[in-house]
Amino acid sequence: MSSTEKKLVLGNNLKQVTSDLHRHFNFTLGHFDTDETDGEMLNALALTVRDRVMERWRLSIEDEKNNAKKKVFYLSLEFLLGRSLTNTVLNLDLDEAVRTALKDFGCAYEDIESEEKDAGLGNGGLGRLAACFMDSCASLNLPVTGYGIRYEYGMFHQSFDEGYQIEQPDHWLRDGSPWEIERPKDTKHVKFYGHSEFYTNEQGEQCARWCNTQDVLAVPYDMPIPGYRNDKINTLRLWKAAATDEFNLADFNAGDYSDAVAQKNTAEQITMVLYPNDSSESGKELRLRQQYFLASASLQDVLDTWTKENKKDFSTFAESHCFQLNDTHPTLAVAELMRLLVDDYNQQWDEAWAITCQTMAYTNHTLLPEALEKWSVRLIGQLLPRILDIIYEINSRFLQEVAQKWPGDVDRQRRMSIIEEGDEPHVRMAYLAIIGSFSVNGVAALHSQLLTTGLFKDFHDLWPKKFNNKTNGVTPRRWLAHCNKELSQLMNSAIGDKWVCHLDDLAKLKKYAGDTAFQDKWRQVKYNNKVRLANLVNQKCGVNFDPQFMFDVQVKRIHEYKRQLLNVLHIIHLYDRVIRGEEILPRCVLIGGKAAPGYAFAKLIIKLTNNVAKVVNSDPKVASKLKVVFFPNYRVTSMEVICPATDLSEQISTAGKEASGTGNMKFMMNGAITIGTYDGANIEILDAVGEDNFFLFGLKVGEIAQYRAYNNPNDLIAVDEDLRRVINLIECGHFSMFEPGVFEPIIRSIRNPNDPWMVAADFRSYIDTQELAAQAYADTNRWTRSSILNTASSGHFSSDRTIREYANQIWSI
Ligand code: 26Q
User: Fold this and answer.
1) Are 109 and 185 within one domain?
2) Is residue 1 pLDDT above 60, yes or no?
3) Is 316 in the same domain as 292?
4) CA–CA separation, 349 vs 434, rounded Å?
């Protein structure tokens, strides 16, 4: 029994859980009828579970205060948590008690859990990675706190009109959330606007202060992050913006009541909505305010805690703190930490800079040059004048260092400057992050290597040791134990249940890969999961998926580099073959994902998929061979049903463009086989599972430039009959009968000799490899063996492994 366990009062047994459920239902929530809805039952259950979280949380915080030598803070504009109830029930080992207690009420656990809304506080991979990391940190008993923003509106809700994406607001907090605890006494003031003032203090030192600011309050809401069955609860602290009283006072006293209230709105706007990952949204002031708001509130929080104990002695601060920056989004933290130390705590610049560079670490998540964050100097100067001073000072000292190492190389100085000169000068956030950090990492081996030879080569030349790789991972709790209960049970019966926290243990399944009795059971589980997904597809799309067919799935944000278009071309090719009278392996193809609201081309790909699906699904000649859906409103909770049911996982990005991918890992864990390019973490998946159990296709990074020089899509179309027929079906309007010309931009893009995404170039290889996959699927035992081997080889892709690497190699905890 652990020391924490001894101090726990609330039991996990059926009797106590039932009694608490009744108490919360009747007394906390005041329900007196028995015909309450599932939603009301969810609240009572959440409170029952939360009580058990609370007692562990208190002990964890106490324990950390007394024992943690070093604390880590994960700063991220996104935490894509999904649902909390099921995850908490699993991690606290409450599953059985909860199921039985609910039965007493005449409720099924599945109905109650499905009432919870997703916390969709993220766009996709980067946000979900932050959530998986939080789960692993707690499960590994590491002192890691997350800092983020409590968006009132999360990722938008997606629906379709005539096949076009429609966005609706996601007011996830409408009915309140039992998982957040407001902590008003830890409120911070965040400064905006105003100007810098320079003065000499009593000791005769030159100092600066930021005056005439318009402050906004940052109010923290804490969410518990439970570890897996270890009684550890970490904290995710999310900030909400609120107006200060002073802020309103001037206008209010002048009698301008409505202006005063309107100003309140400007302050509260900051945390109103999550920005979609959208190039058309770049440069928006509100986004910059969000970023600074997070950085400033979080650092003040940490420094307040520090100075309460240590006053202004920062001599051991660096050895006991580390800030991990999730991409450049929270990078103003570099300048903000300098400001707080120098202006507010009177530290010398050099000491403050040493602290900053020893505590900040930066993770990059993209290779697309257009996705690198830049903010206009004018905007930063207006909104955050003191921060701009500090960025300039950091830059000037840095450029001196460059000049010393490469005397006379002015072009290098221009290239490496934090300030990009031009008509409108910009701050390059990635450079600020690199210069202010002791560690810079990419998220898969190829990605990290491309960073050091491409985008950040100059910085790698200067500081080779700063750069490292941390291949992403996903939490096996949510992405296997929770979402695939039946497979978990089957695996437990064969190899025990240690794999939940030691995923490498799954390798023990390898010896069962060829065992036909085990294969039969494995196949049965997959079949049952396919039935479950088929029901969901039917309910959401009105299309019948036959669980006997191969389930071929691509779910992720819609982007040209991810090449959903290539997938659609394959679907059209299969359709064309059926129409031609050829036999094909029966398939159900599911595509899902959201397009950024301002990304017209991505939205057109959704429209094309919907139109193709309509033609395919309504043709009775095709019905017994091919079904297609665009799955609406894809989110964390959908993936929990989709990945256990998938046979073929589509990971088909243009080589060199997908930093890592994490969906690829969830599918692999659940026994799907990948059809994919040599890109991101696919390479490591291929390495782990071997080429017999992976369908590799397409140009590699090093082949693309040369291929482009000698090949033109139009020539490829001319010589490839299959491609020609597919293009012709789109061009002639077969999928746009009453909408002439709608898909014109798509055709133009495929035919473009400079198509950056290489769609035509990879078509032949993709189609041929899809055919190999179909043949493999037809050989049931071979496929099942491969499926088992994929799960068995997925141990490396646990976020526990990733977090151990961060903890050992970056955080030193
Ligand atoms: C930036 C500025 C303004 C508004 C929005 C943004 C913004 C928001 C989100 C920019 C990018 C993102 C998200 C990026 C992302 O999800 N990247 C993915 O990160 C995964 C985790 O490392 C990788 O697996 C994926 O390969 C990568 O695409």
Assistant:
1) no
2) no
3) yes
4) 18
Instruction: Find the 100 Cα to ligand 1 centroid distance in Å.
Output: 41
Contact, 172 vs 117, CB < 8 A?
yes
What is the reported pTM?
0.98
Asked whether residue 556 is domain-assigned, the answer is yes
Cα gap 510→756, rounded to integer Å: 40
Catalytic residue among 363, 609, 662, 769: 662
DSSP for residue 654: P
Instruction: Grade residue 278 by pLDDT with cuts at 50, 70 and 90.
Output: confident
For residue 263, pLDDT beyond 90? no
51 shares a domain with 101:
yes
Confidence at residue 253, expressed as pLDDT on a 0 to 100 scale:
67
Domain ends where: 445, 471, 497? 471
DSSP string, 343-377: IIS---HHHHHHHHHHHEEEE-----GGGS-EEEH
Q: What pLDDT is stored for residue 3 in this prediction? A: 66
Q: Find out whether 645 and 551 touch, Cβ atoms under 8 Å.
A: yes
Residues 766 and 737 reside in one and the same domain: yes
Query: Is the distance from the beta carbon of residue 586 to the nearest atom of ligand 1 less than 6 Å?
Result: no
CATH number for the domain spanning 320: value is 3.40.50.2000
Q: Does residue 454 share a domain with residue 340?
A: yes
**Shared domain check, 581 and 448:** no
**Structural domain that includes position 724:** 542-780
**Residue 564: inside a domain:** yes
Phi-psi region of 163 (alpha: psi -120 to 50; beta: other; left: phi over 0): left
In the chain, how many domains are there? Answer: 3
Tens-place pLDDT, residues 687-696:
999 999 999 9
**What is the best residue among 128, 155, 277 to mutate for testing ligand 1's pocket, by most ligand atoms within 8 Å of CB?**
277
